[in-house]
Design a protein that fits this description.
The chain has 117 residues and is of the alpha+beta class. It has 3 helices and 6 strands.
């Protein structure tokens, strides 16, 4: 995408702890915004909520690599009410358990293992 209004370094943006976003003034009078989570996900586009302008944020992704997941108590309650759960988290737990039980032997005969899907 090459239609950026401008390219701005993250150091030139201001952190708004109340809204949880970095912001930078937009010519329309509002502010471009980008969250720490977006930066951690390697997103570099800050948008203005009032107009169609976007800016590219120049930053080092390693600075945001260890960002914790945003906790949203309301979202967790909604998923429990809807009968859905974080299946990705369950899969990760299963994967970790499989790694803990993994053994490597020097037996040269291959074995067939059935796996439930």
């Amino acid at each position: 995408m090459g239609a950026y209004y401008d390219e701005i370094e993250i150091e030139d943006m201001v952190w708004d702890a109340e809204k949880g976003v970095f912001h930078y003034p937009c010519p329309c009078g509002d502010r471009f915004e980008i969250s720490r989570r977006q930066l951690a996900d390697y997103e570099d586009i800050a948008t203005c909520p009032s107009c169609s302008l976007i800016i590219r944020v120049i930053f080092d992704p390693l600075d945001f690599e260890d960002e914790p997941e945003e906790e949203d108590d309301d979202g967790a309650a909604d998923s429990e009410e809807n009968g859905t759960s974080g299946s990705e988290d369950d899969d990760d737990g299963t994967f970790e358990d499989a790694l803990e039980k993994l053994t490597i032997s020097e037996d040269a005969t291959p074995q067939t293992i059935a796996v439930a899907a």
